[in-house]
Specification:
This protein is mainly alpha-helical and 216 residues long. It has helices spanning 2-60, 74-80, 84-87, 109-122, 127-143, 147-152, 159-167, 171-174, 177-205, 209-215. The N and C termini lie far apart (78 Å).
Length: 216
Protein backbone atom coordinates (compact mmCIF):
# COMPACT_ATOMS: atom_id res chain seq x y z
CA UNK A 1 0.00 0.00 0.00
CA UNK A 2 2.77 2.41 0.91
CA UNK A 3 4.50 1.68 -2.39
CA UNK A 4 1.29 2.40 -4.30
CA UNK A 5 0.82 5.70 -2.48
CA UNK A 6 4.45 6.61 -3.11
CA UNK A 7 4.10 5.76 -6.80
CA UNK A 8 0.92 7.84 -7.09
CA UNK A 9 2.69 10.74 -5.42
CA UNK A 10 5.57 10.51 -7.92
CA UNK A 11 3.16 10.37 -10.85
CA UNK A 12 1.27 13.37 -9.51
CA UNK A 13 4.51 15.26 -9.02
CA UNK A 14 5.62 14.52 -12.57
CA UNK A 15 2.26 15.61 -13.94
CA UNK A 16 2.51 18.87 -12.06
CA UNK A 17 6.04 19.41 -13.34
CA UNK A 18 4.97 18.77 -16.94
CA UNK A 19 2.03 21.11 -16.50
CA UNK A 20 4.30 23.79 -15.08
CA UNK A 21 6.73 23.38 -17.96
CA UNK A 22 3.89 23.67 -20.47
CA UNK A 23 2.64 26.83 -18.77
CA UNK A 24 6.13 28.32 -18.76
CA UNK A 25 6.60 27.50 -22.45
CA UNK A 26 3.25 29.06 -23.27
CA UNK A 27 4.19 32.20 -21.35
CA UNK A 28 7.55 32.31 -23.09
CA UNK A 29 5.91 32.02 -26.51
CA UNK A 30 3.49 34.83 -25.66
CA UNK A 31 6.38 37.00 -24.52
CA UNK A 32 8.31 36.24 -27.70
CA UNK A 33 5.30 37.19 -29.80
CA UNK A 34 4.99 40.46 -27.88
CA UNK A 35 8.71 41.12 -28.32
CA UNK A 36 8.52 40.40 -32.03
CA UNK A 37 5.53 42.71 -32.40
CA UNK A 38 7.44 45.45 -30.58
CA UNK A 39 10.39 44.81 -32.86
CA UNK A 40 8.20 45.09 -35.96
CA UNK A 41 6.79 48.39 -34.73
CA UNK A 42 10.27 49.65 -33.92
CA UNK A 43 11.59 48.67 -37.35
CA UNK A 44 8.59 50.31 -39.00
CA UNK A 45 9.37 53.55 -37.18
CA UNK A 46 13.00 53.23 -38.25
CA UNK A 47 11.91 52.74 -41.84
CA UNK A 48 9.61 55.76 -41.66
CA UNK A 49 12.34 57.91 -40.07
CA UNK A 50 14.82 56.83 -42.72
CA UNK A 51 12.41 57.85 -45.46
CA UNK A 52 11.93 61.21 -43.77
CA UNK A 53 15.69 61.71 -43.54
CA UNK A 54 16.07 60.70 -47.17
CA UNK A 55 13.51 63.30 -48.23
CA UNK A 56 14.66 66.15 -46.02
CA UNK A 57 18.07 66.85 -47.66
CA UNK A 58 16.40 67.08 -51.08
CA UNK A 59 14.00 69.71 -49.78
CA UNK A 60 16.76 71.50 -47.86
CA UNK A 61 18.62 72.16 -51.09
CA UNK A 62 16.06 74.86 -51.90
CA UNK A 63 16.60 76.69 -48.63
CA UNK A 64 20.41 76.72 -48.57
CA UNK A 65 22.20 80.01 -49.33
CA UNK A 66 23.98 80.44 -52.65
CA UNK A 67 27.53 79.19 -52.68
CA UNK A 68 30.48 79.82 -54.93
CA UNK A 69 31.32 77.32 -57.65
CA UNK A 70 34.09 76.02 -55.42
CA UNK A 71 31.88 75.88 -52.34
CA UNK A 72 32.91 75.85 -48.68
CA UNK A 73 34.18 72.74 -47.01
CA UNK A 74 31.77 70.60 -45.01
CA UNK A 75 33.43 71.70 -41.78
CA UNK A 76 32.98 75.38 -42.63
CA UNK A 77 29.38 74.83 -43.60
CA UNK A 78 28.58 73.06 -40.36
CA UNK A 79 30.25 75.79 -38.37
CA UNK A 80 28.41 78.69 -40.01
CA UNK A 81 24.91 77.26 -40.35
CA UNK A 82 22.36 76.98 -37.58
CA UNK A 83 20.94 73.43 -37.45
CA UNK A 84 17.58 74.87 -36.46
CA UNK A 85 17.15 76.15 -40.02
CA UNK A 86 16.79 72.63 -41.34
CA UNK A 87 14.24 71.44 -38.79
CA UNK A 88 11.61 73.93 -39.90
CA UNK A 89 11.78 73.04 -43.60
CA UNK A 90 8.53 71.35 -44.75
CA UNK A 91 8.92 67.92 -46.30
CA UNK A 92 7.33 67.05 -49.63
CA UNK A 93 6.93 63.32 -50.38
CA UNK A 94 9.38 62.35 -53.12
CA UNK A 95 11.00 59.23 -54.45
CA UNK A 96 14.52 58.71 -53.13
CA UNK A 97 16.85 55.71 -53.35
CA UNK A 98 16.90 53.68 -50.17
CA UNK A 99 19.21 51.02 -48.87
CA UNK A 100 17.80 47.53 -49.04
CA UNK A 101 16.81 46.03 -45.72
CA UNK A 102 15.97 42.46 -44.78
CA UNK A 103 14.17 43.66 -41.66
CA UNK A 104 11.63 45.92 -43.35
CA UNK A 105 8.10 45.90 -42.03
CA UNK A 106 5.87 43.55 -43.97
CA UNK A 107 8.71 41.66 -45.63
CA UNK A 108 8.14 37.96 -46.15
CA UNK A 109 9.93 35.88 -43.51
CA UNK A 110 11.42 33.66 -46.21
CA UNK A 111 13.12 36.68 -47.77
CA UNK A 112 14.37 37.80 -44.37
CA UNK A 113 15.98 34.43 -43.73
CA UNK A 114 17.47 34.33 -47.23
CA UNK A 115 19.16 37.67 -46.63
CA UNK A 116 20.24 36.66 -43.14
CA UNK A 117 21.99 33.53 -44.39
CA UNK A 118 23.56 35.39 -47.32
CA UNK A 119 24.89 37.99 -44.85
CA UNK A 120 26.30 35.32 -42.54
CA UNK A 121 27.73 32.94 -45.14
CA UNK A 122 29.44 35.75 -47.06
CA UNK A 123 31.16 36.88 -43.86
CA UNK A 124 32.75 33.45 -43.25
CA UNK A 125 36.27 32.87 -44.58
CA UNK A 126 36.77 29.25 -43.53
CA UNK A 127 35.37 26.97 -46.22
CA UNK A 128 34.49 24.09 -43.87
CA UNK A 129 32.55 26.41 -41.59
CA UNK A 130 30.88 28.02 -44.58
CA UNK A 131 29.70 24.60 -45.78
CA UNK A 132 28.21 23.86 -42.35
CA UNK A 133 26.18 27.07 -42.53
CA UNK A 134 25.05 26.26 -46.07
CA UNK A 135 23.91 22.82 -44.92
CA UNK A 136 22.04 24.39 -41.99
CA UNK A 137 20.36 26.82 -44.39
CA UNK A 138 19.20 23.95 -46.60
CA UNK A 139 17.79 22.05 -43.62
CA UNK A 140 15.97 25.11 -42.29
CA UNK A 141 14.33 25.96 -45.61
CA UNK A 142 13.47 22.31 -46.27
CA UNK A 143 11.63 22.16 -42.93
CA UNK A 144 10.15 25.65 -43.37
CA UNK A 145 11.21 26.76 -39.88
CA UNK A 146 10.38 30.28 -38.75
CA UNK A 147 12.60 32.95 -37.23
CA UNK A 148 10.88 32.37 -33.90
CA UNK A 149 11.81 28.69 -34.03
CA UNK A 150 15.42 29.57 -34.80
CA UNK A 151 15.49 31.81 -31.74
CA UNK A 152 14.01 29.06 -29.60
CA UNK A 153 16.88 26.73 -30.55
CA UNK A 154 19.10 28.64 -28.13
CA UNK A 155 17.53 26.51 -25.39
CA UNK A 156 18.49 22.85 -25.78
CA UNK A 157 15.31 21.80 -23.95
CA UNK A 158 12.93 23.20 -26.56
CA UNK A 159 11.27 21.07 -29.26
CA UNK A 160 12.75 23.43 -31.87
CA UNK A 161 16.28 22.60 -30.72
CA UNK A 162 15.54 18.87 -30.65
CA UNK A 163 14.15 18.99 -34.19
CA UNK A 164 17.20 20.90 -35.40
CA UNK A 165 19.66 18.40 -33.92
CA UNK A 166 17.66 15.46 -35.26
CA UNK A 167 17.67 17.05 -38.72
CA UNK A 168 21.47 17.32 -38.67
CA UNK A 169 22.18 20.89 -37.56
CA UNK A 170 25.20 21.18 -35.29
CA UNK A 171 24.64 22.08 -31.65
CA UNK A 172 26.85 25.17 -31.86
CA UNK A 173 24.91 26.51 -34.84
CA UNK A 174 21.47 25.75 -33.44
CA UNK A 175 22.18 27.42 -30.10
CA UNK A 176 23.77 30.41 -31.81
CA UNK A 177 20.97 31.40 -34.19
CA UNK A 178 19.40 33.86 -31.74
CA UNK A 179 22.73 35.62 -31.25
CA UNK A 180 23.46 35.69 -34.98
CA UNK A 181 19.99 37.06 -35.77
CA UNK A 182 20.52 39.80 -33.20
CA UNK A 183 23.86 40.72 -34.79
CA UNK A 184 22.25 40.72 -38.22
CA UNK A 185 19.50 43.06 -37.01
CA UNK A 186 22.14 45.39 -35.57
CA UNK A 187 24.03 45.29 -38.88
CA UNK A 188 20.87 46.26 -40.76
CA UNK A 189 20.29 49.17 -38.40
CA UNK A 190 23.89 50.36 -38.76
CA UNK A 191 23.54 50.24 -42.54
CA UNK A 192 20.38 52.35 -42.32
CA UNK A 193 22.05 54.89 -40.08
CA UNK A 194 25.11 55.10 -42.33
CA UNK A 195 22.96 55.50 -45.39
CA UNK A 196 20.95 58.29 -43.78
CA UNK A 197 24.20 60.04 -42.82
CA UNK A 198 25.57 59.70 -46.36
CA UNK A 199 22.40 61.21 -47.82
CA UNK A 200 22.72 64.20 -45.50
CA UNK A 201 26.41 64.64 -46.30
CA UNK A 202 25.72 64.34 -50.01
CA UNK A 203 23.11 67.11 -49.82
CA UNK A 204 25.68 69.36 -48.18
CA UNK A 205 28.59 68.36 -50.42
CA UNK A 206 26.81 68.27 -53.76
CA UNK A 207 27.76 64.76 -54.96
CA UNK A 208 26.15 61.34 -55.04
CA UNK A 209 29.03 58.96 -55.68
CA UNK A 210 29.13 57.81 -52.06
CA UNK A 211 25.41 57.10 -52.01
CA UNK A 212 25.69 54.99 -55.14
CA UNK A 213 28.45 52.88 -53.61
CA UNK A 214 26.37 52.11 -50.53
CA UNK A 215 23.17 51.32 -52.41
CA UNK A 216 25.00 49.04 -54.82
Amino acid sequence: MEQVIEMQAKIYKQQMQYRLIEQMEAMQEKQERRDEEKERRYLFREQRDLLTQAQAPHQMAYSLPERSTIGPSLLTFKTNMNPGQFEAVPITPISRPRSSSSMESGEDEYDTLMKFFAWKINSIKNEDRKEKWKRAQTIIFTNDWSIRELRQMEDDKTPAYQRAIKAGILDSLARGFRRELRQYRQSVRRTRDEYAAVIALDALGGGDSTITSIVD
